Input
Amino acid sequence: MAVIPGATCSSTVLFGSRGRGVIRPSLDQYNGLKAGESMQMGSGKAKATGFVSTSAPKCRTIRAMVSPTVSAPKREKDPKKRVVITGMGLVSVFGNDIDTFYNKLLEGESGISLIDRFDASNFSVRFGGQIRNFSTKGYIDGKNDRRLDDCWRYCLVAGRRALEDANLGTEILEKMDRTRIGVLVGTGMGGLTAFSNGVETLIQKGYKKITPFFIPYSITNMGSALLAIDTGLMGPNYSISTACATANYCFYAAANHIRRGEADIMVAGGTEAAIIPTGVGGFIACRALSQRNDEPHKASRPWDKNRDGFVMGEGSGVLIMESLDHATKRGATIIAEYLGGAITCDAHHMTDPRSDGLGVSSCITKSLEDAKVSPEEVNYINAHATSTLAGDLAEVNAVKKVFKDTSEIKMNGTKSMIGHGLGAAGGLEAIATIKAINSGWLHPTINQENLEPAVTIDTVPNVKKRHEVNVAISNSFGFGGHNSVVVFAPFTP
Output
């Protein structure tokens, strides 16, 4: 047993604050706040009325089991418990085609531009990874298309495209046992447009004018529900909402449904559509966003000394996860293997990380244990890397705690080009990770002009690199101290 001593959990003691989704350095210190300026968040004292103190308490002493490092542990052999990836689908700022998406990433092209979906001229942040020219043709009928929130439109298109990619089109699904196929697509924000419009109608016109679709199209479970209704999939179905860690939580839970024999196939991932006045305005209020309005394409710059916050993105990323046994029997093409994952909580603060880093480093360690992988086997990390002032370094420090020798590891930041997709981020980044495994090419982390000295890991700056991936991990962290890590590798029979 190892004892991690208590420490004052100020965001500046060890890690500052990390970019777990929309995390930034201490809300009172960074991301646009001038010296001496602070956010007013109530009295800062816990009261009987239910208000919760937002001040960071001392870290409780935690007793953690220290697992011995084992070289090349024996991996799962049971084909009914091995989980493979047989399809991928997405909606992104670079379109809906997987190859186009990854080729744009390899080229180092930025998808960040000025927002024109609404008039943002009076906003202090006027740019993001906005999706344009999105079409649902062939996937959603016109009547429903007009009613749906973009969050669910992205989910339906990405989910259907993933099923098609896995050779699970409508005719094939009708011949399968659909009670053994589940859907688990989560979201951090839900139907934010539907919710905002409903509230606006209530205020301006009264409750009698609220559309009956207000609640159904706002609640976070509706992505999974609508996709199941559309395809007739009757297996495990629900949504997870853990802020920017959402998609990885969904992958982890979906894989466990397969491992426990509760499903043969799971459609899993994340979706988000928060680039609307409410979403952008809310994150501006948090002092979370970059304000580089004159150079939007250079705003997301993970690990660069001049980073000033994250850039909002949107979209959806969905994987088809399937037991090896089932995939083999139906002759599916196997893209990669999901080896394992883990989820942990800092149990500390709404936005600040633990100063001892235990939440993130233990999550990485637990994911490798679940995957039956030794740290020495990992040679690629798709980082969370949101471009927050202290968040990027916090993740690097946690990585260094687990991987004592990082000389063979390469680590990049997908968000540098597509922005931060919030609940969809892990889904889009899982696809980027799997494409790296299949192609042997890693996309660059762009906008790295002045790298932080503490970042001694190869972050693939500005130009793509060839790299044969042995084992990859993909990190996602979210508000509330939610940590998630998933592990992928090339499939070998």
The chain has one domain: 85-489. Residues 1-70 have pLDDT under 50 and may be disordered. The two ends are 37 Å apart (CA to CA). The domain at 85-489 is CATH 3.40.47.10 (Peroxisomal Thiolase; Chain A, domain 1).
